Amino acid sequence: MVEISRRTVLTTAIAAGAGAMIAPRVASAVPAMPALVPTGHDPVDLHWLEGGTPAELAGGATWGVPWPRGACTGDQRFALTTGGAGVPVQSWTTAWWPDGSAKWTAHAIGADAAASDTYRLAPGTPAQGAHTLSVAESPSQVVVDTGVVQVVFGRTGEQVVREIRRGGAIIARRGRLVVSRQDKPSTDPGSGPNFQDFTGAIDRVEVEQDGPVRAVVKVTGKHRSAGRAWLPFVLRFYLYAGSDGVRLVHTFLFDGDENRDFIRALGVKFSVPMRGELYDRHVRFAGTDGGVFAEAVKGVTGLRRDPGAAVRAAQIAGEALPDPSTWDTRVTSRLKWIPDWGEYSLSQLTADGFEIRKRTGQGHSWIRSDGGTRAAGLGYLGTPAGGLAFGLRNFWQLHPTELAITGAASEEAEVTVWLWSPRAEAMDLRFYHDGMGQDTYPEQLDALEITYEDYEPGFGTPYGIARTSELMFWALEATPGAERFAALAGANATPPLLQADPAHLHSAGVLGSWSPVDRGTTAKAVVEDRLDAIFEYHLGQQDQRSWYGFWDYGDVMHSYDGDRHQWRYDVGGYAWDNSELSTDLWLWYHYLRTGNASAFRFAEAMCRHTGDVDQNHLGEWKGLGTRHGILHWADSAKQVRISNANYRRHFYYLTGGDERSGDLLHELIDSDRTYLVLNAGRKVDGSTGPYEPDPTALPLSTTTDWGAIAGAWLTEWERGGDPKAKERLLASARSIAALPNGWVQGGATYDLGTAEFSSGPDKAVSVGSLSSVFGLIDVMTELIDLVDEPEVEAKWVEFCRLYNGTSAEQREVTGASWGSLNLRQAYSRATAYAAVKLDDDALATRAWKELRTGHAGYPDGQNWGTARIEPPAVLKPVDEASFSTNASAQYGLAAIQLLALVPDHA
């Protein structure tokens, strides 16, 4: 067999030997539709996620809406109204039911949308707006005209955005990506490091959407300098009709050597032409709670001599100053003595502190201007004739960040959104220990017994991880007033999002077994209170424990150390959660049924993090995620159960097809191929030599592995991707059902070419507690609802019935007891599913008993409250509870699904 080295993409030779990979997804492909007579649907009411009417949009807004099977054709047109008046909307389908009807649709509105707190969506003809967005392509550039601004994208070179125009004037130009690296860390003693600067170079530009309301331009490339190209990037620019805003979703992939490539700065830079007098050039920064820092490059307030009240008031307001002939001559004759503050910086180096500084120019000292706790992440540079607002979402959460202005006193300034501030220590991605002598599998397994860390030399590399950031730019016609600027900062920090309420989402029959909140009985109310309690606790812990930072924000900790009153951030596999036991799913289902905006934002941040940071996107492990640990990427267990498509689908559909999430979902459809390069069971099955896989008999499990891959195939199928995804999904599911013991058959192997499992003819049992706690139950629930496969359904229901069944019941069906299984509370939802499918009241009653007993979870009698721990026992006041992330996720999913499946037995 072929021996494959680290960090290489699977070779063509191996691909040919194991069956062709699924082809890349065709954008907006529509499956062949049988004759469909739509049943129709009543109008759907929409509201803003955070409630009320937002003062500003982040350019525009895009969201998703599900529809019941058969209600709408796959190419249905939609109309949006508010108060009976039409609102311009662009609509497209993001997923189809098997009959060709629309399952999920996406919708976009721009600046022409009437401000309202509610809208109504229904089949119909969309209204026309005052502005129509247009896209013009040529061999050298792409020009997007929103009707208000024109943005020119280069197809080659380093200027990703060549210019942004408004009203004939260039507001910004030469938009480019910048990176600086050093060859040594900032924290180690010794001689200083060597530095090297890089600029993003374009490889390809694609127009993914071209209006009439929304345009999406995708740019890919690498950061280049003399003799080297690295850090691949994927940029998506979003523009909306009638809007002066440009949203940028920026993703970069780390493909360096963590021992010599230390990123000291990473950012997006624009040049801003400066016009007019220095006293008419304005700087703005957003602070905390709507606060605004406002100054001019040449200030005329606070001087020893007063230029006049009208002059001072105009400068404070950001308006053009009166003619200097109207000023006090004691000021105008001495303007040259007033310093020109040409450089400004707002740096957020921690989650709890930012600082604003300024200086007259390079070579001179910085003067501290102000500071605060958590900045909203928006800056502005311009004049009363126009300027550029520039910002970064989750600015303080993703520290160390910075907004910088240079050259404001010259003819052309530069503004930079630093995703990693050059004022911070260089990014250090090295492993946190030297291996401590864990050179063999027995030593590594022994260490696992004490720290729960699955260490293996060479596996702690960050090679192939990614990070996505969201930026906003507004080409403004004038310096904004304080209220307008604060509103823009709010839209930058929390982009407004329209959503349907839980009742409609549930009525569409999407995303498995869940139901809206129901407190109709005392028993149900008790469970609802507990669901709220565990969610609010983990949400609060994020802030109390400061789970923030560029690589960390979005994740939560795994387990708690009650002795230290601290989460086990430094104890091996007990530290960062990395989606262990489906935390992502729990949060998404909590949002679906409650409509809680905090739940959506919590899950959104987790989706961004776990999809990028906890997963490999390059090299031989592409498509695999990394098990929980002290560093997100450092554990040696690389598995599809973590890169899991089941954790990304909710965000993708609810946001109207977020393109970065779509990339991640598509990336996983060939993740079964990673079993050609890595044996996940190598430490326990005696594999000590070179791995020599047989593509026709790979060690891929029918549960944790297949469930994650099946989620990718299911999503690819319903999104209208390659039909091979459906073929492989159904072939694999049928083959598992055909095994003597179905999902618990021991000794089964996987044929990569046919996507089928096989085993010997005799019944054998191999089952573990982790089998169905990584999305398998959820994907099977959806699959069985979509297709008519009685054998698959029967075998799956058998598994669900038997997991928490008696040994006698298990022996009768499978020939052996399943042993002393763990996580029985988690599997109460499997029992509930079987109860519904078999119409068995006894099973339904058993399911609730299993939930209340709380085996390996939360029993009824435990303390569901929190205790306040005060200094000096802790560094700062914190709340403590008898909760762990694993137990919360699985209790949450179990309780949610019991309330949906067998609520009357509560």
TrEMBL record:
It comes from the Bacteria. Residues 43-123 form the PcRGLX/YetA-like N-terminal RIFT barrel domain. PROSITE patterns: TAT. Pfam families: PcRGLX_1st, PcRGLX_2nd, PcRGLX_3rd. This is Tat pathway signal sequence domain protein. Coiled coil: none annotated. Residues 495-905 form the PcRGLX/YetA-like C-terminal alpha/alpha toroid domain. Residues 134-489 form the PcRGLX/YetA-like central beta-sandwich domain. Residues 1-29 form the signal peptide. Keywords: Signal.
